[in-house]
């Protein structure tokens, strides 16, 4: 069975044992790409001890300073959450989402992002994701240990990496999804044009317009060509305004 091109991304893990436990969980389920964003303690003897049998995964882990750096080059991105979120995020059951992640990873690198042990992922960090993953658990105590959460996700991905994922691949469009960097460039371009045309958030707080646009486009799962089309439209708007003698704001 071919190993899927999936990055396991841990954002600000505070306990080195969880990093080692995550590496071991990945090794169990044929995953090898581990990325650590601002780990509190790494490398560390406890991480090495907990990674028993998975020293290669641990030694190959990349350490980066930001989530965009960790997601560079990725297409489909999933993020884990244990809390209720507002309706603008798409939330999926882990088992239902796993075949899609596997299928996407066969076109371009995919990523599953996990937050810090105590605080999880912020809404800003979640905005990079196409889907949020929920792991069913007891309502009385739904919080999972970080390494345990990685183990469950890795298991479901391994389970989905057979015939079902191959069948799902047949339904995919040919163009790869826009990368995280391309989407960030699109969102920055959108914000620039909205400012130039003085299109403001008319809600009471006046702060959510770009967040809603971002989440709308994340749910649309733009491919590389579609992201370029939207940027072309935005550029045409800017050029038309300049020809009409309207200076940029």
Task: Summarize the structure in words.
The chain is an alpha/beta fold and 249 residues long. It folds into 2 domains: 6-169, Alpha/beta knot, CATH 3.40.1280.10; 180-243, Helicase, Ruva Protein, domain 3, CATH 1.10.8.590. The chain has helices at residues 16-28, 45-50, 55-59, 67-70, 94-105, 123-126, 146-159, 163-169, 180-196, 209-220, 224-243, and strands spanning 6-11, 33-37, 62-64, 77-80, 91-93, 110-114, 131-134. The protein has a 7-stranded parallel β-sheet. α1 (16-28) links the parallel β1 (6-11) and β2 (33-37). α1 (16-28) runs parallel beside α7, α5 (94-105) packs across α7 (146-159) and α9 (180-196) runs parallel beside α11 (224-243). The longest helix is centred in the C-terminal third of the chain and has 20 residues, at 224-243. The radius of gyration is 20 Å and the shape is elongated. It starts with 5 loop residues before the first strand and ends in a 6-residue tail after the last helix.
Order of the strands making up the biggest sheet = 3-2-1-6-4-7-5
Helix-strand category: alpha/beta
Which architecture name of the largest domain does CATH use? Answer: 3-Layer(aba) Sandwich
Number of strands: 7
Largest sheet features: 7 strands, parallel
Which spans have pLDDT < 50 for at least 5 consecutive residues?
Answer: none
Full CATH superfamily name of the largest domain: SPOUT methyltransferase, trefoil knot domain
The overall number of domains is: 2
Helical amount: 40-55%
Coarse shape: elongated
The secondary-structure element order is: EHEHHEHEEHEHEHHHHH
Radius of gyration: 20 Å
- Class of the largest domain in CATH? Alpha Beta
CATH third-level topology of the largest domain: Alpha/beta knot
Give the termini separation: 55 Å
Overall residue-averaged pLDDT value? 89
Beta content comes to 5-15%
User: How many helices?
Assistant: 11
